[in-house]
Design brief:
The chain is an alpha/beta fold and 311 residues long. It contains 12 helices and 9 strands. Strands 1, 2, 3, 4, 5, 6, 7, 8 and 9 form a 9-stranded mixed beta sheet that branches. The longest helix has 27 residues. The C terminus is likely disordered.
Length: 311
């Protein structure tokens, strides 16, 4: 009999954090779980620590799989490998430098079964240098969920979204880049989902630190990688005749790449999606501060435009 929920956990260079994450995972109130750890050739003691922690939870041992990549492949490949190995009715991801609340999976599964939803999304906390901020799983309630994931009104994190496993079978995804790849997958999943439900509770803590992928990429790298994956989303939308209906959402995704490119010289900045240069100001619901930042870049007021860079 297949487990109710498969949890896919990426492991790479997280020896400072993995013990807390693993204990929160193994102490979940939901018993019917499958844990799939994907070791992406971690160069530190992360796997040794994981195995040591597992000794304290003998009842969980039979539920744990540890997969080892032959070479370092990055999080896009590793997530995909974990999904391929998952056998659960529902699938969710977890990053091993973060930690879930101990009732996370029971709460999301209960909501899924109560509502019949294909996807259940919860709120979360962001931990950054000791400061905790609240993150909403959905910033614009009532919005078409597919449009919301494209706009970013539903942030494209995989760790606060319980997904019916069969939906992953409909996703066609060849990893292009290791930042923004979650949005490529989730955009397709949200398109195929019949119903999305929400739990307005912060049940996951996302930790930002110097080793976080987004910080390692830097501003220039972040913009490039987001652009690479946006092209995959646009190809998917065109193939499914979605590009005209969601043209403003496409403009919003282009604008996100532009906003993440503030560090570039003005000439290179203006070369990014030139068709979106003035359309950006008309995007419904797009943050005013980002529009002001874009305006200062258009005008060449570099000292001011840096104030609007997205953190």
């Amino acid at each position: 009999m297949k487990p109710a929920v498969s949890v896919i956990i990426l492991v790479y260079n997280v020896e400072k954090f993995i013990e807390q994450c693993a204990r929160c995972l193994f102490e979940q109130t939901l018993e019917d779980l499958e844990y799939i750890f994907v070791d992406d050739c971690s160069p530190d003691a992360s796997i040794e620590i994981l195995n040591r922690v597992l000794e304290d939870y003998p009842a969980r041992r039979s539920q744990v799989k540890i997969l080892h990549n032959e070479v370092n492949r990055g999080q896009a490949f590793s997530r995909d490998r974990g999904v391929s190995a998952a056998t659960g009715e529902y699938i969710i991801h977890c990053d091993s430098d973060d930690y879930p609340s101990k009732n996370l999976y029971e709460t999301l599964l209960s909501k899924a079964r109560e509502t019949g939803a294909d996807i259940v999304v919860c709120d979360y906390h962001i931990l950054n240098e000791g400061v905790i901020n609240y993150g909403r799983g959905c910033r614009r309630p009532g919005m078409d969920p597919f449009a919301a994931i494209l706009y970013g009104s539903i942030p494209a994190y995989p760790w606060n979204k319980l997904v019916r496993g069969s939906l992953y079978g409909k996703v066609e995804f060849q990893p292009v880049a290791n930042i923004g790849e979650d949005k490529v997958v989730l955009a397709q999943i949200f398109h195929f989902a019949s119903k999305v439900a929400f739990v307005p509770e912060p049940l996951y803590t996302y930790r930002l630190h110097d080793g976080s992928t987004c910080k390692l990429a830097g501003v220039r790298g972040l913009a490039y990688l987001l652009g690479e994956n946006l092209s995959v989303i646009m190809d998917f939308m065109e193939a499914n005749d979605l590009d005209r209906k969601y043209r403003w959402a496409i403009s919003a995704m282009k604008a996100e790449v532009q906003i993440n490119s503030f560090a570039l010289p003005r000439r290179k900045y203006l070369a990014i999606y030139p068709e979106n240069r003035f359309r950006l100001f008309l995007i419904p619901g797009f943050p005013l501060e980002w529009k002001l930042g874009h305006l200062t870049k258009l005008l060449g007021i570099h000292g001011i435009s840096c104030l609007f860079r997205r953190s």
